[in-house]
Write a structure and sequence with these properties.
The chain has 23 helices and 22 strands. Helix 11 links the parallel strand 12 and strand 13. The chain has three domains: 179 residues, Beta-Lactamase, CATH 3.30.450; 152 residues, Reverse transcriptase/Diguanylate cyclase domain (Alpha-Beta Plaits), CATH 3.30.70; 240 residues, EAL domain (TIM Barrel, Alpha-Beta Barrel), CATH 3.20.20.450.
């Protein structure tokens, strides 16, 4: 049973119990009512039989016949007495005089002194007159002061549409009570059941309330009033994910608020922060607290992602908070994306935004980064399970991009670039930018690196005239299994080691230069070269040139691209890097040469080597084996 349905089940049980109690009460009452009606119908038939018998004996002229025949009076009275059974208190026959008074014609009571013929009778109900006049049988309920009588059945004896007399059958109170008590065992059981149902209702109401409180505690963040991650799971069970935009908002360096002003003040700031967020977002939005000072936001696609993100970024940075007589502002970082169609798991979306948030934080924080993913395929490629399957099935290929000598146009070496093969369409190759961050820091990253190196070693063995450059992260080189694999190969194939360059990627800042240099020394001892990739961006700094024993600098592509947009400034920066490389004796490579304009600018700067799509796209190595000169 899913947790989100429990409250509905409890409410359903409460309603069923209540409905059952009402039905049982109605059922017993209806049974008793029907029983009474059945007995009344029997009494009517009983009265009809008595009336027919009297009419027969009196030959239709009741009053005159009885007045003239005292013997018949006595006979009929005694016969009426025989009709008095326990359920009837009295049976008697009345005649209305022209003045509207009633007189006894017959008295069937079992009293010692019966009412004599012609004795006055004073009914306490005006309906006697109505029955006498209209000639219709009627049941009347007697007042409590009428001794021993529950109901009176008034049956008119008529001849030629004229009422001759009125037969009265008084049903006893005893009989009425016996009918009431007919269902008394069931009534007692019902009473006990109602007590049980009442206690059950109270018990389930308490459970319902406790469950409501419990759900509220797990779905709502107690501190800020935002929703929790559990709420997010339930929210998208009944909604289409691709109808929403997603944002992650993180307060930069919020721990400083706690450290400087205390946790209570920090909590108050968070509460105010969430209230402000709610005011700035569309009403249909959902705010999820995913971490200490991190919030996930979701709002419908009828609103523009860029506009909402910019609005939040500006307003939340301008917001002032009063903390212990100090007015403070806080910087925030925002990542966001439009959730692609057919997205099945919101956690994959959040994982992508988290990865983007790490990039924002590493680049100085206090900014916005919006991810442009057009389909759920792009999300799929970032799922660790998908990548795991690809690596286990070795659906991985290496492509090779040539690095040219700038002056001669000859291919110097090839950079090895990894691709995953799509699970459903083998013609689709997935670049590392779409999947690498998902496995960074996991054993799958090491597994991928090993698969790449295995292919690199096979190519070096198969083609003795080529040089290769392979990307490695420092985490790869810090992994003992990885280093052991590399060292084993280099020691056994020293002739190939000189044709292999290790490009060190800057995913993390180098903090232990001595350890890094020790690794580099081991690799270079076999004749391999060390290159620093993307120099001029990220963590790279001139300290690298002082501390590390390297051979090659690869200028970051973002600097090379600037040769097209801001060529003068870019030339100054690149020229300074060129001067440093010449001073330290490093080879220099310009990456991302995407067009002729950039290529001519690089060539004019006399950079040693060039690489990019304009010169050669990543392809299988066989596609370049016959090609030795680009021009």
């Amino acid at each position: 049973m899913k947790l989100r349905y429990i409250n509905k089940y409890i409410l359903l049980i409460l309603l069923l119990l209540l409905s059952f109690g009402v039905y049982m009460q109605w059922s017993v009452s209806e049974s008793t009512r029907q029983l009474k009606n059945d007995e009344i119908e029997k009494s009517k038939q009983y009265a009809a039989n008595i009336a027919a018998w009297i009419m027969k004996k009196s030959k239709g002229e009741i009053e005159s016949t009885l007045r003239s025949d005292p013997t018949l009076q006595k006979e009929l009275s005694e016969m009426l007495e025989t009709f008095v059974i326990p359920k009837y208190a009295y049976i008697f026959l009345l005649k209305q005089t022209p003045k509207g008074h009633y007189r006894f014609l017959l008295d069937g009571s079992k009293a010692e002194e019966k009412e004599r013929f012609g004795t006055l009778f004073f009914p306490q109900n005006k309906q006697f007159d109505e029955v006498y006049k209209r000639g219709q049988v009627k049941i009347i309920k007697q007042e409590d002061d009428v001794k021993g009588v529950w109901l009176s059945l008034l049956y008119p004896l008529r001849k030629e549409n004229r009422t001759q007399a009125l037969l009265v059958l008084d049903l006893s109170k005893w009989y009425g009570k016996s009918l009431e008590s007919y269902n008394s065992p069931l009534q007692s059981l019902l009473w006990l059941m109602q007590i049980f149902l009442l206690f059950s209702f109270i018990f389930l109401s308490v459970i319902f309330y406790r469950y409501y409180q419990f759900r509220k505690s797990i779905l709502t963040d107690r501190l800020t009033g935002a929703q929790t991650k559990r709420y997010l799971e339930e929210f998208f069970l009944s909604r289409k994910m691709h109808d929403y935009h997603a944002l992650i908002v993180d307060i930069d360096e919020f721990k400083e608020v706690n450290r400087n002003f205390g946790y209570e003040s920090g909590d108050e700031v968070l509460k105010e922060f969430v209230r402000t967020l709610a005011q700035q977002l569309p009403k249909e939005s959902v705010i999820i607290r995913t971490g200490g000072a991190e919030f996930s936001l979701f709002f419908p696609k009828q609103y523009t992602l860029e506009e909402i993100a910019q609005k939040l970024f500006i307003h939340m940075r301008q917001k002032r908070y009063l903390v212990k007589n100090h007015v403070i502002q806080m910087n925030i970082s925002i990542t966001g994306m439009e959730i692609p169609p057919e997205t099945k798991d919101i956690q994959h979306v959040l994982r992508i935004l988290d990865e983007e948030m790490l990039k924002v934080k590493s680049q100085g924080k206090n900014s916005i980064a919006l991810v442009d993913l057009q389909s759920d395929q792009e999300i799929k490629y970032r799922q660790i399970d998908y990548i795991k399957r690809a690596l286990e099935e070795e659906r991985l290929v290496c492509l090779y991009q040539p690095i040219f000598k700038t002056k001669t146009g000859e291919i110097k070496k090839y950079e090895v670039l990894v691709r995953l093969v799509d699970e459903e369409d083998t013609s689709v190759l997935i670049p590392p930018g779409r999947f690498l961050s998902a496995i960074k820091g996991t054993s799958y990253y090491i597994k991928m690196s090993k698969l790449v190196l295995s292919q690199v070693f096979r190519v070096l063995e198969a083609y003795p005239d080529i040089e290769l450059s392979v990307n490695l992260d420092l985490d790869d080189l810090h992994n003992m299994d990885m280093m052991q694999m590399i060292m084993d190969y280099l020691s056994k194939n020293r002739a190939y080691a000189g044709r292999l360059t290790f490009e060190i990627l800057e995913e993390n800042e180098i903090r232990d230069y001595s350890r890094a240099n020790f690794i580099f020394t081991q690799l270079k001892a076999y004749g391999s070269k060390i290159a620093i990739d993307d120099f001029g961006s990220g963590y790279s700094n001139y300290n690298y040139l002082i501390q590390l024993d390297i051979d090659i600098l690869k200028i970051d592509g973002s600097l090379i691209k600037e040769l097209r947009t801001t060529p003068k400034r870019a030339e100054v920066v690149i020229s300074s890097i060129k001067l440093l490389a010449e001073t330290f004796g490093y080879e220099l490579v310009a990456e991302f040469v995407a067009n002729e304009t950039v290529y001519e600018a690089v060539k004019a700067l006399e950079i040693d080597y060039v690489q990019g799509h304009y010169l050669g796209e990543p392809k299988p190595i066989e596609a370049y084996l016959e090609q030795t000169n680009l021009y």
